What we know:
The structure is a single chain. The chain is of the alpha/beta class. Helix 4 (103-131) links the parallel strand 4 (85-88) and strand 5. It has one domain (7-242): Rossmann fold, CATH 3.40.50. Helix content is 44%, strand content 15%. Helix 1 (16-27) crosses helix 7. The chain has a seven-stranded parallel beta sheet with strand order 3-2-1-4-5-6-7, with helices on both faces. It has helices spanning 16-27, 39-50, 66-80, 103-131, 153-173, 197-204, 215-226; strands at 7-11, 31-36, 56-60, 85-88, 135-140, 178-185, 237-240. The structure holds nicotinamide-adenine-dinucleotide.
Amino acid sequence: MELKDHVIIVTGGASGIGREACLALAAKGANLVVADFNLDGAEVVVGEVQALGVKAVSFKVDVSKAEEMSALVDFAVEKLGTLNGIFNNAGIGLVKPFLEMDPASYLKVIEVDQHSVYYGMYYVAKKMVALGAKGTFVNTASIYGSIASRGSFNYNAAKAAVIAMTRSGALELAEYGIRVVGVAPGFIDTPISGKDAEFKETLAVQHMSGKLIDPAKVASVVAFLFTDAAAAVNGSTVAVDDGFLAFKV
Length: 249
Ligand SMILES: NC(=O)c1ccc[n+]([C@@H]2O[C@H](COP(=O)([O-])OP(=O)(O)OC[C@H]3O[C@@H](n4cnc5c(N)ncnc54)[C@H](O)[C@@H]3O)[C@@H](O)[C@H]2O)c1
């Protein structure tokens, strides 16, 4: 129970990687705020983690709105008494060729995938420093924060910024006992990857195993990064990509 009595916010906790992270963190004893746009889904996950013996509450949030992220942080402390970190994970994709990447399509993804991570880090850091609480932030980047992918100018920019914010945040928050790390998933078998089996196969072959990655395999790395066993990992983003960045098909 390495995270017993820790309180951690998980954004995008209703589905995919976020839901699996809630289960993995609860298995280590963490109390959780499951935050998502999808409140019904978040409430289901709250029930699942409570069954593992931890305290959990849900919160409906649009992570792209600063005031809602600030309210989420206040809610966490009001309901669970303290705060020891956040998994900044909620995200979307919006694929379009660059010549159709109008400002609205660009900004939508920047606001949800990039600005949300800053809001999460900023409001949680302010609260933790005020409380004198220590802990960890984990940010979800992507393999596509390190390389280009077609139709994803917005997503590539946002995820590269997440990797940069992870470094800069770690540098400035170390003195307060807050570690900031990232994960860069490859192609994960979640709703974001779609339902088309043929398309999924084109993704799967880009992994060393030839298979999509189970979201639980990302969650186990995330949960580890929150623990003291990962105390020497700081400012870096860990690839959880089954070798994607290591070879070319
Ligand atoms: N699935 C992949 O292949 C993959 C690869 C690399 C990175 N990622 C990243 O992993 C993260 C999680 O993705 P996933 O695959 O689990 O997808 P998912 O669609 O299963 O889960 C995303 C969750 O985020 C929530 N969400 C979306 N926009 C929101 C908003 N504005 N406010 C609050 N909640 C919001 C959704 O309701 C959903 O529950 C994302 O940041 C994504 O970019 C995914």
